[in-house]
Backbone:
């Protein structure tokens, strides 16, 4: 019982202290508000000012002649109703008037789904493989070789424009005469072109197309037809010995598996030259034909290779080779990808007249 009595006493003391605290806080708050209102009195509203809508009445002078005239009696009549003033607020009515009532919202129903339409998907047509992929390069027919050469010729002209006429083209045709007269066996006519390029370069491809770049004539002085003869003879040798066809035959099946068509496979020998053994074989063929059919001396037959060696040394071809320069046309790199010029010159020097074929 004692503990219950102590709890009651403690509870009473707690309630008494809490009540005193709340009362003290309330009194302090009211005193603060009264003091603040005395220090910050509420500003009195200013009288309304006259506006343009309330003009002052016009001043009229007093008429002195009418001062002696007695004023007539005025009957008390009801005042005329005043016109409604737009500035006055409308009369207050006990009825609630709703202006421009908004229409009640209708429940939004989702649109009915459109019926699915079955669209027939057309298969993407597979581009036909190049016609040249079906060629038998081992037994290439004349008409197929002509068509193959024509398509390759269009690819070359798309990269470098050709000079269809001029002194350079005439010199190339004259330099080819000794080889065409006795050195060729193909019944496909030869086509010679001079490309409008500053590169010291020349190349050929099946179909008996031979190309000489304009820049190569910088290595040939006037009256040195034998220098150009070696260049033309070297390219004719590649065609007569069918170097391009043999090179493509080696990797034709593997290239087709990788999706590389036959026409594109010929880009490799046109850009990066032939294997070294084929280049040496073409040099020897042109060297011997010049001595046999054009009555050139071994010194004259080796002159171009001496000039090209000096050209490679001046441009500092690494080991005689030169990779394609950034931004250059790939076809202009063919001559620079040949074996080192000094090695080709050594091989030509070792050739003897005893190895020349019979006329």
Residues:
């Amino acid at each position: 019982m004692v503990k219950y009595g102590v709890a009651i006493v403690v509870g009473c003391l707690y309630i008494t202290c809490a009540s005193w605290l709340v009362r003290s806080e309330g009194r302090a708050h009211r005193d603060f508000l009264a003091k603040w209102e005395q220090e910050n009195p509420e500003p009195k509203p200013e009288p309304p000012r006259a506006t343009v809508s309330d003009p002052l009445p016009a001043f009229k002078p007093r008429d002195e002649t009418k001062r002696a005239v007695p004023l007539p009696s005025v009957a008390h009549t009801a005042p005329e109703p005043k016109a409604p003033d737009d500035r006055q607020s409308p009369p207050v009515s006990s009825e609630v008037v709703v202006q421009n009532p908004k229409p009640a919202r209708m429940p939004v129903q989702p649109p009915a789904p459109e019926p699915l339409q079955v669209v027939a998907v057309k298969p993407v047509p597979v581009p036909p493989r190049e016609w040249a992929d079906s060629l038998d390069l081992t037994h290439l027919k004349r008409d197929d070789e002509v068509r193959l050469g024509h398509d390759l010729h269009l690819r070359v002209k798309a990269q470098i424009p050709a000079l269809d006429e001029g002194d350079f083209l005439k010199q190339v045709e004259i330099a080819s005469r000794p080889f065409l007269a006795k050195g060729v066996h193909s019944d496909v006519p030869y086509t010679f072109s001079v490309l409008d390029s500053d590169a010291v370069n020349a190349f050929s491809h099946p179909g008996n197309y031979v190309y000489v770049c304009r820049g190569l004539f910088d290595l040939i002085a006037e009256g040195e037809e034998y220098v150009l003869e070696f260049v033309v003879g070297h390219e004719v040798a590649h065609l007569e010995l069918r170097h391009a066809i043999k090179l493509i035959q080696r990797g034709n099946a593997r290239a087709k598996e990788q999706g590389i068509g036959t026409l594109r496979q010929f880009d490799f020998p046109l850009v990066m030259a032939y294997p070294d053994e084929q280049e040496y074989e073409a040099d020897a063929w042109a060297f011997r034909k010049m001595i046999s059919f054009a009555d050139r001396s071994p010194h004259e037959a080796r002159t171009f290779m001496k000039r090209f060696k000096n050209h490679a040394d001046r441009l500092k071809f690494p080991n005689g080779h030169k990779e394609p320069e950034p931004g250059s046309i790939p076809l202009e790199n063919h001559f620079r990808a040949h074996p080192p010029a000094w090695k080709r010159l050594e091989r030509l020097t070792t050739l003897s007249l005893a190895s020349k074929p019979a006329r």
